Structures are given as C-alpha cells and as structure tokens.
Fold this protein.
Amino acid sequence: MIRVSYMVEEDLSTYKKIYKMVRMIPVGRVATYGQIASLVGKCSARMVGYAMAGISDETIPWQRVINSRGRISIRDPNGYTLQKAILEREGVHFDESDTIDLSVFGWEGPEAESAKDW
C-alpha cells in the first residue's frame, strides 16, 4: 500500500515537470512527445501523451505537443481540428498532408532558448 502511494505521488511530480516544460514552448513552435519526455527525464513519450490528454489548466499550451512525424496525434476529428486551428493561429504551418516541418517549427528546448540570450 505504501509503495502504491509513493508511485502515485511520483507520477504527479512527473506530470508537474511535464507541464512546466510544455509551458516553455514558445508561440509558433512545437515539440514532440518524445522530446518532452527526454527533457523531463524518467518518463516516456506515452506518459507525456497521457499528461496532455488530462490537462484542465488553460495555461498549459497542450496544442504545441505533437508526434515525432510532425503530425497531430488526436484521433477525435473535433480535437484534431481545434489543435490545428490553434497552431495555425500561432503561426505554425502545415503542408498538404497536414504535417509540420520540425526543422522550421520545432522547438530546440530550454537550453537553446537561453543560449539565444547571450
């Protein structure tokens, strides 16, 4: 029983770290589930996906997290359309197959952002 409680607390802490990292993605940029997982550490891309699916906080830019192929992963047509519309409003462009060019719109991570301040 104690072990289960510890695991739940650890997961909550990881989710908080995921949300903190996602808040760092600037407008007009996207990051992948795997990239966020690597930056946060000790979690998987799938866990990042679960964290994004469970968001109720409007300050977390969930729409900026996409899959490693540069595509939106939401299967629900309404959710897909919403995420795409928000990203387009933020200046992210999709090609004819609804793919985002990660070399153009991909976020390089927090280290790259702070390096630009030099």
User: Anything to note?
Assistant: Strands lie at 31-32, 65-66. The chain is about 55% helix and 5% strand.
